[in-house]
Amino acid sequence: MVKHSLLKIATTAAVAVGVSLSAFAADPIKIGSVLSVTGGAAFLGDPELKTLQLYVEKINKEGGVLGRQLQLVHYDDAGDASKANGFAKRLIDDDKVDIIVGGSTTGSTMSMVPLVEKAEIPFISLAGAVVIVEPVKKWVFKTPHTDRMAAEKVFTDMKARNLTKVALLAETSGFGMSGKKETEALAGKMGITLVANETYGPKDTDMTPQLTKIKGAAGVQAIFVFGFGQGPALVNKSYKQLGLSLPLYHAHGVASEEFIKLSGPAAEGVRLPAAALLVAGKLAANDPQKPVVTGYRKTYGDRYKEDVSTFGGHAYDGLMMAVEAFKRAGSTDKAKVRDAIEATKGYIGTGGKVTMSPTDHMGLDQSAFIMLEIKNGDWTIAK
User: Fold this and answer.
1) Number of Cβ atoms within 10 Å of the Cβ of 354
2) Region at 74 (left for phi over 0; alpha for psi -120 to 50; beta for the rest)
């Protein structure tokens, strides 16, 4: 009887140890990422990486996904599209990742697209241009609002203020040029006349020449700037130095506290479309996004002691949609995960409510954008 009991205990212990060792030995789910953590687009990539690291760690502490831990494998392309291409190849061929979340910029993203399409691996981009998802690419998705949506939101606000003669100032980056193209295409359809159309380079330090031309344009009523990084803040400063008083709009590529800090007093009165994340505390109590955006702001702020940006929010949404897709697929089978992402319905994220389909690999509409105005150095909901 004693021998039988000892044998039963030993067998039970062996089974328990075996299960424990099996769980411990399970291969991690690999999340690959190529982000612009340094360089001119660091204001995008830095909060994106911090967000991914924070929530991968949080999810792992809570038990992981499908009984497995997540492993973040990331590289910094420093805003260089050719480097992004090389790192994407490494993620696919050497690291054998299960999914890719990121690039930060349109240029980096588009350099990675042919590789992920050929390898048939799900890819959730954190970049803005509409070209990423139009035409639809089977394995490619994105979380941010598009440049076309931004132009439409800005023009709608302008028309409500009887502003129909507009000067466009676009950056010669992938995002800026895509935004320029979309803005030009929409203008006529929405009853807007572009009376001036200027560009600036990402490394330009003075926008006075372009703004001087705009100032002299016949009948100009408002200025619309399409760019990201430090350039738009420099536009604000040159605008102020020239004594311009025209309504000044920007696209969503500057939606962060850093933009206000870089611009200083020159940011006052600027309007732009952005996600609810920047005005989390000002949302109605019953807004379905409120718990998501306030939760993200608190978690990120407590960890890093810095302000959030919509760009970190895009990374949060990308990771969470990937996690939900793994769960719904019940595996890391790439085709099943791809199908699960495409079937995302009613996901409430920092960027809005997401409902994807075979013809829509972003899943956001204009309700996901809020028109903001900078007042007294803070984001406010525009009236």
Assistant:
1) 22
2) beta
Domain locations along the chain = 25-145+289-356, 148-274
At 25, the pLDDT band (50, 70, 90 cuts) reads low
Residue 16 has pLDDT above 50, yes or no: no
* The dihedral sign for the CA sequence 234, 172, 366, 138: negative
From start to end of 163-237, where are the E strands?
165-171, 193-200, 222-226
289 DSSP 8-state letter: T
- Residue indicated by tokens 């021998």: 3
Q: Rounded to an integer, what distance in angstroms lies between the CA atom of residue 351 and that of residue 289?
A: 9
Q: Which among 274, 284, 342, 340 has a CA at the least distance from the CA of 308? A: 274
How far is Cα of residue 220 from the mean position of the Cα atoms in its chain? 32
Short-list 128, 197, 184, CA closest to 155: 184
User: 201: burial class by Cβ within 10 Å (0-12, 13-18, 19+)?
Assistant: exposed
On the question of a cis peptide bond just before residue 122, with omega within 30 degrees of 0, the verdict is no
Q: Which of 362, 351, 352, 345 has its CA nearest to residue 312?
A: 351
**pLDDT category of residue 11 using cuts at 50, 70 and 90:** very low
> Is the Cβ–Cβ distance between 263 and 237 less than 8 Å?
yes
For the entire predicted model, the pTM comes to 0.89
> Superfamily for 25-145+289-356?
Response regulator (3.40.50.2300)
The percentage of residues in the chain with a pLDDT greater than 90, rounded to a whole number, is: 90
Chain mean pLDDT for the chain: 93
3-class state of residue 143 by DSSP: coil
Q: Which DSSP helix (H) or strand (E) runs through 45? A: helix 42-61
Residue 367 CB contacts under 8 Å (≥ 6 apart), including other chains: 352, 353
What is the CATH number that goes with domain 148-274? 3.40.50.2300
* Alpha-helical runs (H) found in 81-146: 81-93, 106-119
